[in-house]
Amino acid sequence: MKVAFLTTDNREQRAEYDKEQPYFGTAPAAILDGFMTCPKELEVHVISCSKRVMNAPEKLAPNVWFHQPVVPYIGWGRTAFAGCALAVRKLLKELKPDIVHGQGTERDCSISAVYSGFPNVITIHGNMDRIYRMNLLGASSYYWLAAKLETHALGRTAGIFCNSSHTRSLVGNRTRKTWLVPNPLRPAFFQSEPPPAGRHGEPVFLVLGVVSRLKRPLEILETMKGLFEAGHRFKVRFAGGHTTNHPYGVRFEALLREATEQGYAEYLGTLDEEELIRTMDDADALVHFPEEESFGLVIAEALARNMKVFAARIGGIPDILQDTDGSLLFDDFRSLREALAIWMEQGCPSPEGNPAIMRDRYSPEVVARKHLEIYREVLGR
Question: Residue 61 in 3-state DSSP?
């Protein structure tokens, strides 16, 4: 089976044109890792449009090729990614894939998939229509366009890979068919055993995600401040993108500075894969309380490293925590604060057995096999 896999090269998205190798979002990259385990069944052609010519290897793996059509600036968002769709369609006429898979509705991939001229499916990574309606990330004109293009693409594809029941509920009335397919974890999260629990004199909490209203790190830090002032002793570490070019970031920075001076908080910056795993292994619990969450990959990653999880009862998070040990869901920050206090008073007990559950559900091999089943179903139709 020959699959055209449309995804974003992060070099293009982040204007890192001098980097030698393409790299992708965590979920698409993990899917490609899974595809690499099926070389006899699958020929994959990764296609990532760019505004500039960049260094690009012919192959990423024995059964995975890489293509990078160059599209002038006018062919991107200002023309609803028409230039990208035309460039991809031209390339696909030469490749003649059996099926085209567009990764995400955030940028050009879904539009290029539905206008490819071949059977196609789309994976939803972030729910653009919902994010626009909730006004969680600013840039209203961009998210307005992304929401409109999302609905347009959903109505023209053979079906949607939904990463959670929450995502399925949001797109089910806008498309022909849906399948529940989780995002996979990167192989590195399974390549070593998590360290033993209970290594710290004081518990270490980890908060991961970009500093924005979407992820709500400010509210989490305010919750931790209340616990510290009540006499609890701990360390809370924040990691992820952070700027002070918006009021939310300014407020977070001010409170973080105060908490850092008092010794219970620190900011680690943006972490690569190796640093992330090492940081998780040096922490006891993850606190994740976003306003919206299509899946919650960071939670599955934390469980794979045997961390305790305190999370919001929202979006795709309950799907991940189903039948896991020791994970707790909350509807508000008051309940979260009470549960954190109780857990620390109990001596911070650790969960058991979650890494094996995450491997069975979310390893790249397992999720890749699910993709193949759906491709065959679509082509059989």
Answer: strand
For the record, the structure tokens of 376 come out as: 């065959």
H/E run at residue 344:
helix 333-345
Please name which of 2, 25, 6, 29 lies closest in space to residue 112, comparing C-alpha atoms.
Answer: 6
CA dihedral of 369, 375, 184, 355, whole degrees rounded to 10: -30
Give the span between the Cα atoms of 75 and 365, in whole angstroms.
Answer: 36
Q: Which of 196-230 are b and which e, b meaning 16 or more Cβ less than 10 Å from the residue's Cβ? A: eeeeeeebbbbbbbebbbbbbbbebbbbbbebbee
Do residues 292 and 312 lie in contact, with contact meaning Cβ atoms separated by under 8 Å?
no
Q: What string of H, E and C letters represents the secondary structure of 141-155? A: HHHHHHHHHHHHHHC
Q: CA angle, 29 as apex, 27 and 30 as ends, to 5°?
A: 65
Residues of the chain scoring pLDDT < 70: 136-139, 197-200
Q: Is residue 263 within 8 Å of residue 237, measured between CB atoms? A: no
For residue 192, the number of C-alpha atoms closer than 13 Å in the C-beta half-sphere is: 9
Instruction: Tokens for 236, please give them.
Output: 């809370």
Distance CA 267, CA 256 (A): 8
Residue-wise pLDDT for 157-211, tens only, equals 999 999 999 999 999 999 999 999 999 999 999 999 988 765 567 999 999 999 9
For 35-52, write each residue's pLDDT tens digit. Answer: 999 878 899 999 999 999
Structure tokens at 273: 């894969």
* 46 phi and psi angles, rounded to 5 deg: -80, 130
Strands 59-61 and 64-67: antiparallel
Query: 6 in helix, strand or coil?
Result: strand
pTM over 0.90: yes
How many helices (H) and strands (E) the chain has is answered by 15, 14
CB-based contact 117:90 (threshold 8 Å): no
Q: How many CA atoms lie within 13 A of 305 on its CB side?
A: 26
pLDDT of residue 254: 97
Bridge-partner residues for 3, per DSSP? 44, 99
Residue 101: both structure tokens together: 């898979």
